[in-house]
Amino acid sequence: MTAVDLSQLPENRLFIGGEWVPSETGKSIAVTNPATEKPLAEVADAGIADGLRALDAAHAAQTAWAATAPMRRADILYSVNRTLMDRRDEFAALIVAEMGKPWAEAQGEVDYGAGFFRWFAESAGRLHLEGQFGVEPNGQYRIAVSKRPVGPCLLITPWNFPLAMGARKIAPALAAGCTVVLKPAEQTPLTSLLLARVLEDSGVPAGVVNVITTSNSPDVIAEMMHDPRARKISFTGSTEVGKALLRQAAENVMNTSMELGGNAPVIIFEDADLDEAVAGAMVAKLRNGGESCIAANRIYVQRSVAADFVRRFSDKMEATRSGDGTDPASELGPLIDGRQLAKVASLVSDAVHKGAVCAVGGAPVDGPGYFYQPTVLLNVPENAQIRTEEIFGPVAAIYEFDSEEEVIREANNTPYGLASYVFTRDLRRALRVADALDAGMTGINRGVVSNPSAPFGGTKASGSGREGGTEGLEAYLETKYTGIQI
Ligand code: NAP
């Protein structure tokens, strides 16, 4: 694997108006490698004035970017895609260093993130060809319907996919003709800054993309949202913060897209191919170490195959190799920080204390690094917190069920509705259950649903709006109707 190279990143700088500038606070934020707990780099700590400066730049660039030929916008996005793929290992090394995921998964994230630039480049060119032109029903005048960009957007991303979460927002925003200010998570800002470099080198004009890093997100973002020039907020993160941002967005009636938390059920019926179900449940659980909004949180297995499934699944969990992502043999990285490690440990001890049985793992790994053992919990009681809370770690809780009706009721018994997974060989049952699950996404006989060409998003407390697919572009567009007297 490639060694991490920070030489491309100007130290302690924000990217505003096409320039790498210091923050008004003069302060910096330390970025730590979660596998070693050693400092990795420092980035500038933006204050409120920096946030407003970034918004000034995005606002100033908006009209010209919206007027840029769609094919030119498409060419730039294609170029970003190619550069990301050419520099795949450099990005993967940075993702491993700041976030901790295994090497192969980091490479997979670069492919996934780069895929959004290609997918939206494909739609950027033909976007403004679409629309309607017709006669209104009384024959009095003509109706023209077209699309236009929403305007300057605030994009806020979490730490679990440092490249892909930003790419999933920036690519459609730019395709639509919007300018943006990106604020990545405090733990993983480096990948976003390197992406800004690539965007700059690919010909994105000054001010179209701005990146600020801050340790004071609540105040910096609140001031930007208070400014009516910010027309949209697209947020990926926890439901709690998403709700607070929705309240703030109401003030200026901002356009919003919310990708929030999940509590994904995996349902394994007795007629499933058990090898496929074990493999699917493993990837749904351990992808990104379980630190994914679509991670399997509750695994339901029909009683007649439960013992067999638990044995096979537990063997695989036990055999999973943890380690620093720089070791190509590592299949499971550390958690992002000490706080997340403590949260996972507390969810497991609460469940065990209340009567759950720990079949595999069940403890943090001695440091350095924020590692937690791959863990399997059985007989988890009704009152255990892990039944309702997002785990965000390598802990699988397995439940048994008897009937289809019972498992659908259980699976939907959550405020969340992001991903869900069903394993069965019966096509009718698969479609019936997928229809009945109140979730934005269902994987049938597969544990991975993310794809740039498919609409990603949730129902209920998991958010509103979709990213990727054709819906991902719509999120950055307004509909314009023009009535024409002839
Ligand atoms: P988080 O605490 O909500 O933070 C997410 C982002 O919001 C970070 O950039 C954070 O900045 C910023 N932020 C925090 N408080 C803010 C405020 N008051 N105003 C404005 N910005 C604020 O979530 P997280 O712990 O990083 O991420 C984990 C959560 O994200 C999980 O619930 C997961 O399910 C969800 N997630 C959802 C999706 C999806 O597509 N649905 C994808 C990935 C993750 P700081 O870093 O400075 O705090």
Low-confidence region ranges: none
Class inferred from helices and paired strands: alpha/beta
Rg from alpha-carbon coordinates: 23 Å
Distance separating the two termini: 66 Å
Number of helices: 14
- As a percent range, the share of strand residues is 15-25%
Task: Outline the structure in words.
It is a single chain. The protein folds into 2 domains: 271 residues, Aldehyde Dehydrogenase, Chain A, domain 1 (3-Layer(aba) Sandwich), CATH 3.40.605; 188 residues, Aldehyde Dehydrogenase, Chain A, domain 2 (3-Layer(aba) Sandwich), CATH 3.40.309. Helix 2 packs antiparallel against helix 5 and helix 9 packs across helix 10. A 7-stranded mixed β-sheet has the order 14-15-16-13-12-18-19, with helices on both faces. A 6-stranded mixed β-sheet has the order 9-8-7-10-11-21, sandwiched between helices. A 3-stranded antiparallel β-sheet has the order 5-6-22, with no helix packed on it. The radius of gyration is 23 Å and the shape is globular. It starts with 13 loop residues before the first strand and ends with a strand. With 486 residues, the chain is of the alpha/beta class. Helix content is 39%, strand content 21%. Strand 8, helix 6 and strand 9 form a beta-alpha-beta unit. The chain is built from 14 helices and 22 strands. The site of NADP nicotinamide-adenine-dinucleotide phosphate (NAP) has 26 residues, from helix 7 and helix 8.
